[in-house]
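Researcher: Predict the fold of 3-oxoacyl-[acyl-carrier protein] reductase.
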Amino acid sequence: MGKLQGKVALVTGSGRGIGRAIALKLASEGARVVVNDLDAEPGDAVAAEIQAMGSDAIAINGSVSEAGFADRFVGAAVEKFGGLDIIVNNAGYTWDSTIQKMTDEQFQAMLDVHLVAPFRILRAAAEPIRIFAKKEAEAGQEVFRKVVNISSIAGLYGNAGQASYSSAKASLVGLTRTLCKEWGRYKVNVNCVAFGLINTRLTQPIEAQQKTIDVAGRDIKVGVQPQMLDAMARMIPLGRGGTPEEAADAVYLFCSPESNYVSGQVLVCGGGLIL
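Model: Structure tokens for 3-oxoacyl-[acyl-carrier protein] reductase follow.
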């Protein structure tokens, strides 16, 4: 029996990278998982992977920024699994420019995916959570639920070339601490994990031909200059970037029963990196 046996977890952006690792970690502890990815193929693949582990999962794919997605995502968890215990707002990407070159579209896109989408998902979850919590209280039960919002050290300290991303991630900390106060009466722990350098496709070294990802028809450049990665690695006390699995472990800390009296906190998962 895992520590999350019977729990229902929703993880956005869980078809690849950190999100995939989070979904698999929660499933390994017994959670039933609602997976999501922008693209159907990786989202469906992770759901199948979880099912092959002996747990249960469904995939609700599509952009978290789309109108109506939040209701569809939360509704699927309640309808399919009859519960709503863990929400991890992980989906996101970076679209960088210095401020003089940054367009309104770039700035708004980062707000939409990193701040507006989590807000909408949490708003959609508010009424089901209230109903579940009321029934549990009436039965004399104390059941804790978990929200983990994913921020970044860029949101805590800023980062050159990331005015939009940093602004959205900083605002997510404010949303976290506000919901901690609003949802404490429902026994919901609302916390935030801020990642440092985690090795994913978004932080891979840029080679001769820079790679791109397709986001809503936009070709977004991904990767980091090798010399910058080397410099960051030297700044990290543990000497390297983290793995997606190590990132998932940090999120799991806030999903586990051991965090039942921890709320409104920001945990930096960055190997000791403090900018």
